[in-house]
Amino acid sequence: MEKNTSTEIFRNKSLILIITGYIILYGTFELTAKLTGDTVNPINALLISVCVLIAAAITEVLLFKTRISDLVKILGLGKPGSKAIAASLIITILLFLCYPLITMLTGYNFSIPQNWIWLAIGVFVLHGIAEEVLYRGFLFRRLREGRSFWKAAWLAVILFSVAHIPIIINQGLLVGGMAVLLAVVSSFPFSYLYEKGGNTIWAPAIVHAAIDTIIPVLAAGPMDERATLAVTLWMAASMIIPYLSFLILKKKMAV
Question: Closest by alpha carbon to 242, among 203, 206, 190, 197?
């Protein structure tokens, strides 16, 4: 009984530290994003990402006593597994095939910005690296310690769903609600790719960045009813394709 009580107290203290670290990292992300203004700008994206990485490193060292020499591996920046990368690339290709399909269904023509290469790099740096270090490299990894995959994933979902609520307020119930739902649904395939990639962020970062390519693409064109419908269909595809892939992969390899 005493041993179980001690274990429970330890877990509660650990959870408090994890939530504290998450608040620090998420706060750093949001604050730097507001200060820089245009997050589509690759320079701003790089600045935000650097700040998040620094905050993550400081949080790991101060709150969890992580050695500086272990930070690259701990934060998921090490060498990824080839199977997870291959799976993420296949998912990305399937997602990109949805762009012409959505155009056929809605009549909305997606506009590719002239500086799309730099914008793509910015999307990958911000939404791929920075967000995946935050959500998978720190939050999910810490919650996974001593917990099952599903329990850790659901705890992570609860925490970052709350963080996405302001999106509903700013962007409305339809687009904002879809964004929150997308964050919830994608958490499971992203976490799975993270683990199967050797606890590295690169595989989920590829898919995460692919999903968020809609941001600079939409910024290049007018935002009307067709665009809103196109965004809704894109978010639906971004939920369905990665999650179905997750279910298929999960059958082949036990979680």
Answer: 190
* CA nearest to 201, candidates 65, 49, 55, 68: 49
Place of tokens 């998420």: 26
Q: How do residues 76-90 score in pLDDT, each as one tens digit?
A: 999 999 999 999 999
Q: In whole angstroms, give the CA distance from residue 12 to residue 61.
A: 20
Query: How many distinct structural domains can be found in the chain?
Result: 1
Residues in the chain: 255
Hey, what are 124's tokens?
A: 């990958």
pLDDT less than 50: residues of the chain? 2, 6, 255
CB 234 within 8 A of CB 214: yes
Distance between alpha carbon 35 and the CA centroid of its chain, in Å? 21
Nearest to 147 by CA among 83, 191, 203, 201: 191
* Contacts (Cβ under 8 Å, ≥6 apart) of 186: 207, 208, 211, 238, 239, 242, 243
What distance in Å separates the CA atoms of residue 180 and residue 136, rounded to the nearest whole number? 17
* pLDDT at residue 161, rounded to an integer: 78
pLDDT at position 49 is 97
Q: What is the pLDDT of residue 134?
A: 96
Residue 93 C-alpha from the chain's centroid: 18
Full residue range of the structural domain in which residue 33 is found: 2-252
Residue 177 carries which side chain, given as an amino acid letter?
G
CA distance 98 to 21: 37
